[in-house]
Known about the structure:
The chain crosses the membrane at residues 302-323. By secondary structure, the chain is mainly α.
Amino acid sequence: MASVIDSALNPPLIDFRYATVSGLSGDEMFIESVSSNFERTGDDLTALIADCTFSEELEKLFSSDPETLCNLDELESLAAQLERDNESHSTVSKEKAVINRLTAWLAENNLKVDYATASVEEIAKWVRYFYATLRKSDGSFYSPNTIVGIRAALFRYFMKLRGLNIIAHEAFHSANLMVKNVCNAYLKSGGRVQHYEAIESDDLVKLASYFDRSTPTRLQEEVYFNVLFYFGNRGREWLRGLTVRSFREKALSNGAMAIELQGSTSKNVKGSSDMRLCDDNKQALMVAKPESRHCPVQAFQLYLSKITAGIFAFASAFLLVGIRRTSFCVRNHE
């Protein structure tokens, strides 16, 4: 142990807890070590701030007299530039393509509309006619997804241009009804909505062999997959809001046990993000398969018993993050 401290050494290079100085206790040396670290860190931070340089635009924003150095037009320019730099390239491209198509359609009909100054009623009228005439090059109707995408592009454009909501504004009621009529015309003309293909049986067998419940991670992955597979709501946002109270066990008329999703958010539900407030809540069930060693209800019950006991008893979230092999013991249900 050193009894003499070299004054040329910087404080952080010395651990005072293991140095001995006459007249000072070990606790006093520890306090001195922490204090010297704080002082050195403060000096380094001061030097770092002193070396910082700001761009000309930021200097204006942080100026003590912004009215003379940065007016509202310049602030608006900076904000607009930030928005442009962080917009999705594909979204901007689609938006431009749709606006160009609307402008070209107006020109074909000997019309010229100033989108920035025209009345809301005038824009709504021409947008409604535009929806009604949308066709593919072969004369057939566009799919509902394409029509909704075109309206979304117009919505973004007019919101940025003049804060005009072409979906919620009452003047666009007829135009939005036209969107529904065009989508119905697509279906009546023989068009079909393309869905994702079902998971093939061979792939389900491979998944079942992986979900052996040998570790906490695999058990959680199996339950995660089953929730998606059986309840099948669009998106992934609703998963974050799941709690242990989001599910309930339900006995069916044939005596089988099933798990029912009581409520969650879904992109499929219009008008409310809470499925419990909607009339079109899907009545999907996760039904038990007692004869199978991969019964989804058994996996669910096992997982639920683990996350509601021990160190996880305080957690209300259903899908816990960061479960490790040693988090809880897992045993297969044969």
